[in-house]
User: What shape does this take?
Amino acid sequence: MKTSYEKFDVFIAGGNITGLICAIALSKNKIKIGCCDPNIDINNFNFEDTRSTAILRPGKEFLESLNIWKKLNNSCLPLDKMEIIDDNKIFKKFSHFKNYIFDSQELLNKPFGWNVKNNVLKKTLIELVRKNKNIKFFSKQSFEKLLIKKRTIVIKLSNLKIETKLLIGADGLNSKVKKSIKVKQTLIDTRQKALSFQVEHEKSHKNISTEIYKDGGPLTFVPTKYRDKMNYSSVIWMSYSKEIEKLTNLPKNEFKKLLFERSLGIYGKLNLKSNLNVWNVNTMFVEKLCHNNVILVGEAAHVLPPIGAQGLNTSLKDISILNELFQNKKKLSYQELLREYETKRMPDIKKKIFSILLLNEVVKSNSVPIMFIRRFGIEIISKLGFLRKNIMRFGLN
Assistant: This one.
């Protein structure tokens, strides 16, 4: 007797931000979408995340096209300018630190991006998925294994099986989908960790996102919505793993003192408003994005250091391209769709990985020649208008 399973056009393993947006986007094509996540109960969402996400202009436009942005608009702050400060020990002997301002008005009369708290973003996406009749979410269910048949894929979840025409792995760095299809990945350990937390500060951020470069990694302040105040930011502090581990074990007052010194006092007094969240900073990319009727998106396919807000925005580009291909699905078979996705995304991902990896190496280096290159490189970029604009465009795209 032939076994019958619940059938889907597309099934997404991973119900975090990337997986949820992917489900919402593809559901617009009036197809049946399934999605699962072992850590999310869609009917009882209670998840603490001290991080925030800067969504750049192309990502915002994509979320607008999905009717997601209007739900987030009142919960985010525009990032009008980007400030880079090179806290360089060589040049400190001769002068105080130097700052460089990059203004979004030079490109268009719009901000570079908008910052939104991860908690707010996830809650909004979950509410939209719950109300979407084309999406069925399997709470507290993890992807376990698959069986690729001639035209479909049978998927075993924690305690049931389903069948789908296409499987999307959006289940992060340690993706079970990726392991199931035996796609090789290159994982680069940067020997860094990152701390994220929220702070209230004495001086206004003026909608300026600030990155302070120093050996070990950058300290980044990103303006964050908190009532009507202009003195609340999300912070990411990157440094060598041992230094971050020491920071996490400090008494609160000592940590605040070191944070004030590391921030050069530019925001005045600082008060911690959340717990510290710590994670390893890795870079990862896969040898291929597709295998049979399986596609990898988001951090299952690529992981970037948290510099320049490229992480989620690269994932949004994955989903945007995939959605475009689905809109032309009548002209394409699934195999053609997968080939098109691979062709369109892989070169862009490799370019992004290389550029962010290089930037991270330059920012964290304590080599005297590299520190000279870093200072004069930023100086040249800031003074040459055409070069400055092209760098800003590359960061947005």
